[in-house]
Amino acid sequence: MIRTKSAEEKPSKQDGVRLYVTRFWPRGHGRDECDAWLPNLAPSEKLLRAFLADQITWAAFSKEYKKEMTKGYGDEDGKNAHMRNSGQKHTLKLLKLLAKGQTVTLICSCAPDEKHCHRHLLQALLED
User: Fold this and answer.
1) How far apart (Å, rounded) are the C-alpha atoms in residues 81 and 124?
2) Nearest to 65 by CA among 75, 86, 51, 79
3) Beta carbons of 69 and 88 less than 8 angstroms apart
4) Where's the DUF488 domain (predicted)?
5) Alpha-carbon distance 48 to 65, whole Å?
6) How confident is the model over 27-36, as pLDDT tens digits?
7) Cα–Cα distance between 56 and 62 in angstroms, integer?
8) Strands 36-37, 104-108: parallel, antiparallel or unpaired by DSSP?
9) Is the overall model pTM greater than 0.90, yes or no?
10) How many CB atoms lie within 10 A of CB 63?
11) CB neighbours of 94 closer than 8 A, spacing ≥ 6?
12) Contact yes or no for 44/27 (Cβ under 8 A)
C-alpha cells in the first residue's frame, strides 16, 4: 500500500517504510524521522521553482513532473548512457515491489492538506 503524508504530521506505526521524497531536506526534521531520503523522486529544482513562483499551472507542473519521472532530468547530456533518468525508473519499480508487501509512506514538506503536491502525483504513478 502507498500512502502520502506531510513532514508536519507525526510519524505513526501505520506509516510502514517512511520515505522523504523532497528535493531539499525538510527544515527542522531529523534523519531519524524517515527510513530514506529520495530526492531523485522530487521535481527538478527548475520545475519546482517555476511552480512555486506561479510561472506554470498545476496542470503543466503535473505533466512535466510525470515526464521527469518517466523520461528523466538527470543525465540527458549522455555522459552516463545507462542512467539517463537518474535512476527514477528503477527506484519506482523498487517502490512498487516494496508496496506489494508493506505500507510505503511518501513524505513531502508541503502542508498536510495541500492538494497541489507532487507526493500525490508520485502516489498515482506508483499505483498505476
Assistant:
1) 28
2) 51
3) yes
4) 2-127
5) 9
6) 889 888 999 9
7) 10
8) unpaired
9) no
10) 13
11) none
12) no
Contacts of 22 (CB under 8 A, 6+ apart): 7, 37, 39, 42, 107, 108, 109
| Residue ranges in 16-74 assigned as alpha helix (H) | 45-52, 58-71
For 10-43, letters b (16+ CB in 10 Å) and e give: eeeeebbebbbbbbeebeeeeeeebeebbebbbb
> Which residue shows C-alpha cell 505500507?
103
Please choose, from the candidates 109, 89, 93, the residue with its C-alpha nearest in 3D space to the C-alpha of residue 37. Answer: 109
Instruction: Tell me the HSE value of 72 on the side-chain side, using a 13 A CA sphere.
Output: 16
pLDDT value of residue 86: 57
